[in-house]
Amino acid sequence: MAALEKQVEQRTRELSHAHAQLQTLTDHLPAMIGYFGPDLRYRFVNEAYRVAVGKPSRDIIGRSLAETFGPEKAHDIERHVKRATRHHKRVSFEMPLVFPDGTTHYGAVTLIPDIVEDRIVGFHSIVHDITERRTREQATRLEARRDTLTGLPNRRAVQERLPRAMASTDRRGGVLEVLLLDLDGFKQVNDTLGHDQGDQLLKEIARRLKAGLPGAELVARLSGDEFVVIARDDGGHAQGETMARQILADIAAPMRLAGQPVQIHASLGIAIYRAGSGINPAHLLRAADMAMYEAKRAGRNQYRVSPGQG
User: Fold this and answer.
1) Which domains are present in the chain?
2) N or C: at which end does the chain have fewer Cβ atoms within 10 angstroms?
3) CA–CA dist 47, 22 (Å, integer)
4) Pair 110, 139: CB distance under 8 Å
5) For this structure, is 191 an active site residue?
6) What is the pLDDT of residues 224-234, one digit of tens each?
7) Per-residue pLDDT tens digits for 163-190
């Protein structure tokens, strides 16, 4: 019996030493490393985990996912736990984490089932902080959708946002209006004052459009001297003509370029999308474009509504 007790003591010391070594090793790794059982209660966490949660080990070990992260976040994690359980394979996913200081980080999570004799006895959790990568990716996505000269959304942004706005109108009802405008006489400004001053003019037009239409769904520069405004009215009342008159007045206000007074005008076309009408985004933009050219043919510095949509 004494020999058996000594063996148990020896084995206990070995296990305790192994656990201490594991704790020391993982505490010096930047990733959040944890382990929880099938009951979703923590049995091990490293220093990075404790920092992210903002609690000491004694307040995490033995606590559930819900007690550690809150019910909503725990529910999200449990979906992936079920997936790992179903397939007996590791699963990876990304999720936001709010740190104790209130900052939001993004983690790339890997859950690895701990399988003994074909039975899952727990889950290893490894979380790498990918906040910097996500921030760079988001900045790249935004940059790809922004006009570098004016800072407005560009054609790509319009192509992505317009279908979503139309789908939202279908769900919520009301009308969506696309106002497409082209500056009259912009080439003359470029030819007489130079392209640098032409760029300054475009920036000023962009500023006036944004300032004058704070409630618009989107104000964007399509290309060259073409701009587009997307506006929604959930009440179903088309306001495009009112906005068109305001836009034309704002653009026509004199400005100074290279020390000279300059006045420019625009031609504007309006296309209206009503909930459930089934028009596709390309057709809606084309209708606004055709209406804009009709305004140019009629003498410029005015607007036209696409036929059948007034």
Assistant:
1) 31-134 (3.30.450.20), 145-305 (3.30.70.270)
2) N
3) 12
4) no
5) no
6) 999 999 998 87
7) 999 999 999 888 999 999 999 999 999 9
9 band by pLDDT with thresholds 50, 70 and 90: low
The residues near 229 (Cβ < 8 Å, ≥ 6 apart) are 178, 179, 180, 181, 209, 213, 216, 218, 219, 220, 243, 247
List all residues 6 or more positions away from 190 whose beta carbon is below 8 Å from its beta carbon.
197, 198
Residue 46 neighbours by CB distance under 10 Å: 23
Check if the beta carbon of residue 127 is closer than 8 Å to that of residue 30: no
Q: Which two tokens stand for residue 308?
A: 């059948």
CB 300 within 8 A of CB 184: yes
In angstroms, the CA 170 to CA 174 distance is 8
| Active-site hit among 147, 182, 184, 225 | 225
Q: What DSSP element (H or E) covers 45?
A: strand 42-45
276: left (phi over 0), alpha (psi -120 to 50) or beta: left
